[in-house]
Design a protein that fits this description.
34% of the residues lie in helices and 26% in strands. The chain has helices spanning 3-8, 10-14, 20-30, 34-42, 44-50, 67-100, 127-134; strands spanning 138-139, 141-142, 147-155, 158-166, 172-180, 185-193, 207-213, 220-227, 232-237. The chain has a 5-stranded antiparallel sheet, with no helix packed on it. Strand 8 (220-227) and strand 9 form a beta hairpin. It is globular, with a radius of gyration of 20 Å. The protein starts with a helix and ends with a strand.
Length: 238
């Protein structure tokens, strides 16, 4: 594989769609590419939602006399599958994130010049961490040693936020929730905290996550990080 193909195979690898030889080659590449490791980590939440979603298959055998056309289509499909692994799946993930309003996609397609907000991106940072570093964080108020903050921006589709979270021990399931001035609550993203935790002794690195809400920023009173059972961990007022 070329390096370009290796990088764009992150989405296909996350969904377990790579063929055996490509999977082994990508795993070898992953050991030396911190950027892909961060991209893969950010895709973990989306991969579960996209399991089972794939490109449209052939409807059935073609009518008699069209065997030549069918052969061409089969060959084109095989070629398209290789190119589609990264761009098709990541594009679908972005669409799911926007429609659902509660999923997060912390990655971007490779190739081309980065947008101005990402022009200073360093190789060791994932997209969520880079967005947080480039923004103006709003510090949150945590409980039981939890700390963190958010960088938020208003979008045409709602509100985008990048979260930094420390002092959380696992195993635990958490959610980032936007709370409107009306009291309406919208889940922006969810994740699992492994046993070592984030930003704690023995596992000092904080957690960075992207999240999206269909609620406009001007209508939001605060953001909350809560456990799956509703226990508050961090509150960020805006």
């Amino acid at each position: 594989m070329t390096s370009q193909v290796e990088h764009t195979d992150v989405g296909a690898y996350a969904l377990g769609l790579l063929e055996e030889d490509d999977r082994l080659a990508f795993e070898s590449h992953l050991r030396t590419c911190s950027s892909c490791r961060f991209e893969l980590s950010d895709l973990a939440g989306v991969a579960g939602v996209l399991q089972g979603i794939g490109p449209v298959e052939d409807a059935g055998p073609p009518p008699e006399g069209q065997a030549g056309v069918a052969d061409l289509l089969r060959r084109k499909k095989a070629a398209d599958r290789r190119a589609r692994r990264g761009t098709f799946l990541l594009g679908m993930a972005a669409a799911v994130a926007l429609v659902a309003g509660g999923l997060t996609l912390g990655t971007q397609l490779s190739g081309g010049d980065p947008p101005p907000a990402m022009a200073g991106r360093t190789d060791h940072m994932g997209p969520a961490e880079q967005f947080y570093a480039d923004g103006t964080p709003i510090a949150g108020k945590g409980v039981n040693g939890v700390s963190g903050g958010l960088v938020v921006e208003s979008k045409g589709w709602g509100t985008h936020a990048a979260l930094k979270l420390s002092g959380v021990k696992g195993p635990l399931e958490c959610e980032l929730v936007s709370v409107g001035k009306s009291g309406e609550r919208r889940v922006m993203t969810g994740w699992s905290v492994p046993a070592p935790g984030y930003g704690v002794p023995g596992s000092p690195s904080p957690l960075y996550m992207h999240g999206g809400s269909a609620m406009p920023l001007k209508e939001i009173d605060r953001f909350e990080v809560v456990t799956r059972t509703g226990t508050p961990l961090l509150t960020v007022k805006v």
